[in-house]
Protein: Peptide/nickel transport system ATP-binding protein
Organism: Atopostipes suicloacalis DSM 15692
Amino acid sequence: MSLLQVNNLHTYFDTRRGTVKAVNGVTFSLEEGKTLGIVGESGSGKSQTAMSILKLFQKNQRIANGTIYFDGEEISSFSKKELLNIRGNEISMIFQEPMTSLNPVFTVKYQLMEALQLHQKLDSKAALARTYELLEAVKIPNPERVIKQYPHQLSGGMSQRVMIAMALACSPKLLIADEPTTALDVIIQAEILKLMNELKEKFNTSILFITHDLGVISQMADDVIVMYGGKIVESAPIKEIFKNAQHPYTKRLMAAFLRTDIKQRSTNEALDFYSSENEQFDFSNFRENADADPDWIQINDNHYVAATLKQHPVS
Ligand SMILES: Nc1ncnc2c1ncn2[C@@H]1O[C@H](COP(=O)(O)OP(=O)(O)O)[C@@H](O)[C@H]1O
Ligand SMILES: [Mg+2]
């Protein structure tokens, strides 16, 4: 049984201009102790997929279709109150901007201890001891000093470590990390990624890791799904996607990452990922606004692409 199973998820915004299908038929699963990466450009629906898991929704937002199972329970049918109980206990989230998760008016000590006392029901002595353990786990130098500081007194890398410590406070089964290192410079980013991998090993946490950066995903993920226009266009083990990408959109992401030039046709055409030169596959049924469920074509073990096989005339 998978720890997280998302089936045919549709998450919509009702706006004055009509319905925005931010997530439009997404299916994936995440196994215990594994990291699943979600990649795709800005606006492809990565964050809204993650927000749907705990229904961290705006007023005009809803799950229009689909189910989400976590640890054997259908959490997509849970109330906000029930989900609140899961959040911070079994599922933790970290975001790009630590300042959105840390409260500016409280010290690091207060925030960590509060989380521990609330969720883990620890008394204050045990909570303080655990706070130090967590700060040590995320390799914060000089914890006696840091613990007394307010979020604005911390550097970007340091506040991200504190946020990870907060996320780990309750030993979650699932950590959802949405662009957690995007705001950091490359050296700090590398340290944080290494730290997350170590913590994953230590606590056997499953991670849903969202990024637009293939370099980051290559260091973090076991498997990856590629999103475009609210849909998954390709999914594969990480090595396979680098070796053997099939979807024209995935190929373009790869090319941009590897900085190799793909054959560019006219600018307009180059942006139409669905009119590919692929001999075998037709990608055109699954344009981002289409409601059609893709026929998943299997390329390899656990490697699927959203396409239909082209009908070749018999000669
Ligand atoms: N507040 C909103 N109101 C209406 N549509 C929204 C809102 N927030 C996001 N969307 C829609 O959801 C899509 C996916 O957004 P998001 O999941 O945040 O993208 P990503 O995280 O991949 O950059 C956006 O392209 C946009 O169309
Ligand atoms: Mg996002």
